[in-house]
Amino acid sequence: MSERQPEDATLVARTAAGDDEAFRMLVERHHRAIFRLAYRHLGSVADAEDVTQDTFHRLFEAARRYRPERPLRAYLFTIAARLCLKRNKRHDRSRTVPVAPAAIEASPGPSAGASPEEALWQKEREAAIRSALDELPADQRLALILLRYEEMSGEEIARVLDRSPAAVHSLLYRARGRMAELLQAAASLREVER
Amino acid sequence: MTDACLHCRTDLSARPPGGVHSPGVATHLAACPDCRQWMERDAAAWQALGAIREPEPPAGLAGRIFERARPRSAFRLHRLVLGMAGAAALAAGIVYGVWIWRALSTSAPPAIHFEPPEVAYAELFDATPIGGLEHPSMGPGGRQP
User: Fold this and answer.
1) Mutate: best of A176, A179, A184, A188, partner B, most B CBs <10 A
2) What predicted TM-score, i.e. pTM, was given to this entire model?
3) Contact (CB, 8 A) for A152 and B50
4) Rounded to an integer, what distance in angstroms lies between the CA atom of residue A182 and that of residue A190?
5) Regarding predicted confidence, which is higher, A53 or B136?
6) Distance of residue B16 Cα from the nearest chain A Cα, in angstroms
7) So where are chain B's domains?
8) Do A126 and B53 count as a contact with CB atoms less than 8 A apart?
9) Which member of B14, B48, B51 has the closest CB to residue A169?
10) Nearest Cα to A178, choosing from B38, B81, B67?
């Protein structure tokens, strides 16, 4: 029989009281989800790692102020989302390299057992989708990632992004419409290349 | 695109494709080929987004997060000890100051004794000029003859 794991709120309270082991358990439990969100939004392993580290630092620093009525996962996503948007703003100002090559370079390796051709095709496809995602404005991209990959509702996304539900629905409408256009254009381009 | 189309597409965008539509959206979709086409393209894009594999964090990330937080914890302890020492020094200074102030305010002021010189000024030297006070040209008592 597996031992019952402590609740997030209990671990945060123990972290606030100086219990390092409780903080370690929180990191183990949630760091993958935060890294995934940041990587999908920023498209760079190094940037995603920075955001993940900063998110947990902020949790560590603010553990005393954490209100347990809000789920910790949503709380961490809110911190990470704000850090992503901030970092994105900085990158937008200094971005000099095209998006697609950076996305190819930073994307994870091909899945195990894939032939070299399949791996190349998979990588190209991912890079095309990644590139289309990067074309979206940062807030639209983030809303779409939270809906598509984190399976959050419009209301949950609104809380994470600190927007009204109506504003989030509008963001999602524009993001999904633009994404469909971009992917259709990319598919048409591939057809022409063949 | 009409307002009804915008309302329909915004509603569809707020959730994953393939779910049950509200009666208003379902009615509009049945009557609007543009929105049905929009919905099909959206569903294809949604599926394409699933082709991005789940990124795995780099090895050792959890350890690095933890190690980066620990020095802060040590720094906070150091800061706490320094703060407590400072507060103790300040409290001691205040107590000492109050003690001094009370000591000064409750004791009698130091008496200042003025002791007149035991020897009178006149006794120190003879102020009478040599030869007396009377000028030779003067009569007794300093009067003109």
Assistant:
1) A176
2) 0.70
3) no
4) 12
5) A53
6) 7
7) 3-49, 59-103
8) yes
9) B14
10) B38
Structure tokens at B39: 């919905």
pLDDT at residue number B135: 58
- What are the tokens at A22? 């409780």
Angle at B31 between CA A148 and CA B24, to 5 degrees: 60
pLDDT for A194 equals: 59
Question: Residues B24-35: pLDDT tens digits?
Answer: 999 999 999 999
Identify which of B82, B140, B114, B50 has the alpha carbon closest to the alpha carbon of residue A148: B50
Is A179 in contact with B45 (CB distance < 8 Å)? yes
A17 vs B contacts (CB less than 8 Å)? none
Those residues whose C-beta lies under 8 Å from the C-beta of residue B34, and which sit 6 or more positions away, are B1, B5
The answer to whether B3 contacts chain A (CB < 8 Å) is no
Domain A1-96, what fold? Rna Polymerase Sigma Factor; Chain: A (1.10.1740)
On whether any CB of chain A is under 8 Å from the CB of B41, the answer is: yes
Q: In sequence order, what are the residues at sequence separation of 6 or more whose Cβ sits closer than 8 angstroms to the Cβ of residue A43?
A: A99, A102, A103, A106, A130, A133, A134
- A27, A148, A184: residue with CB nearest B66: A27
